[in-house]
Amino acid sequence: MPIQSFNFEVTRVCNGRCVYCDIWKTPNQQNEISIYQIRKGLQPLRFLEKTRVIGLTGGEPALRKDIIELAMILKTVCPNAQFSMVSNGLATERILSVMTELRRVDKNVTISISIDGLEETDSLLRGDPTHFQKAWKTVHALRAKGFSVCIGSMVTPKNIDELERLSDECVAHGIKHILMVVNKSRHYYANHNNTELQALQQIDTVKLKKIIKKINQNYHHYYLPKYLRNPRQMFPCFSGFTSFFLNAVGNVYPCIHLDHCLGNITQQTLGEVWNSDYAQQIRYSIVKKYCHCYTPCETQGWLMANIFPKIIRGLAVKLGD
Ligand code: SF4
Ligand code: SF4
Question: How far, in Å, is the centroid of ligand 2 from the Cα of 239?
């Protein structure tokens, strides 16, 4: 099966201090995979020639100094891919400059800025009293330059009552609003020992369902309350089949949640990693639904890549009831 998308953690360096994520505590900048290693590791090229989406994530991806050179390499390997960057929105000028340069590499590049509620709550969850103002400043600056921007919010008991207002604000500015829930991930968020997580995951699903119906922004949202009531793999997942997660040191995982490293592209090629017996075993476990999660970058990936979006939208409305 051709690879349709992948998420690439371009750096673990982060200027954010979010309470539910510990990436910023483990930056590991020295071992970041180099451009040369990426070019060499993403072989054979036929593996990636049909890739449609590359998610640039971090840390704060805009803080990687050679992100533009990196994007240029990725574009030569995946000529049909669209870049989609996730940012905390803190470093307005740097983000603007990176996005402007990225647009030269991919004219359709999009960006998601994280904002977790109204000012006080956002400051609390993002661990920074300046985040709210700076992130909105970045959103407006990007919009003024004609970029496609969306806002991503982690749903928690602390901000659930503010999501409608935040969503109204997004609508007023013509911005898409994406809801997510706090997930645990040892190899990505490094938050497996985070003592705040459990309380932040206790979401009132009845309330959330009502909010989602009012917001009505994204078919991805419709399954969320159902998943939270009974966490399981609700649909066949194709992570590890048509998508993967590449971390900042070159490790390949099926996704940002499943902590099974398939190999490292500084030591093998992607083709060797992908075709290994171990990768096959992990795929078997995914097919058997031994794992589950709910995040836009994974669920939307397989929805978009594998099932006709129109059918899914119809199903979503029914199943959400
Ligand atoms: S969630 Fe993102 S912005 Fe926040 S600390 Fe983690 S990597 Fe940084
Ligand atoms: S269900 Fe979730 S955790 Fe399991 S492979 Fe798919 S994306 Fe990863």
Answer: 6
